[in-house]
Amino acid sequence: MLDAGKKVAHCLCGKVKIAAVKINPKFTVCHCDTCRTWGGGPLFAVQCGTEVKFEGADSIKEYQSSPWATRGFCQHCGTHLFYRLNKTGSYNMPVGLFPDLPNLTMTMQYFSDQRPDYYCFSDQTQEMTNAEIEAYFASLS
Ligand SMILES: [Zn+2]
Ligand SMILES: [Zn+2]
User: Fold this and answer.
1) Ligand 2 centre from 65 Cα, in Å?
2) What is the pLDDT of residues 82-109, one digit of tens each?
3) Residue 92: nearest ligand to its CA?
4) Which of 83, 95, 101, 106 has its CA 20 to 30 A from that of 11?
5) Cα(8) to centroid of ligand 1, in Å?
6) Alpha-carbon distance 131 to 124, whole Å?
């Protein structure tokens, strides 16, 4: 059983349960084409690191959406569960999965140059364009 004291979430049908030990309340928004195709809109995600436990993991389907990341979803109800970086194994999870995270703050918008012109947010955040993100990852390797 998952420890109820941890930050827990579950998919719509309840077959997958998630417990994350650490969640950064400074969440990010991704406007990239892949995220918007996946979810129909920008992806709001919290960084959860690698200390994430799953119950019902056999119900999770994974899809490698790019050379650097894999996305997971419940194969029964379709709930989007995570975006995992292949290199580090760290998880980014949709903010809305977690019912009552304290101190949530929008701090970063990724792929701001791919943001379509039919929505905008009034929150003032940092932004990174496609070119800035590529340069950042190139500097890490
Ligand atoms: Zn489900
Ligand atoms: Zn994205």
Assistant:
1) 10
2) 999 999 999 999 999 999 899 999 999 9
3) 2
4) 106
5) 14
6) 21
Q: Is the pTM of this model over 0.85?
A: yes
- Alpha-carbon distance 90 to 28, whole Å? 15
**What does the buried/exposed string (b/e) look like for 42-76 if buried means 16 or more CB atoms within 10 Å of the residue's CB?**
bbbbbbbeeebebebeebbeeeeeeeebebbbbbb
Q: Which ligand is nearest to the CA of 80?
A: 1
Q: Model confidence over 22-68: pLDDT tens digits?
A: 999 999 999 999 999 999 999 999 999 999 999 999 999 999 999 98
Q: For residue 79, how far is its CA from the centre of ligand 1 (angstroms)?
A: 6
Tracing tokens 């997971």 back to the chain, one arrives at: 72
Residue in the block written with tokens 């400074």: 26
Backbone phi, then psi, for 98, in 5-degree steps? -100, 120
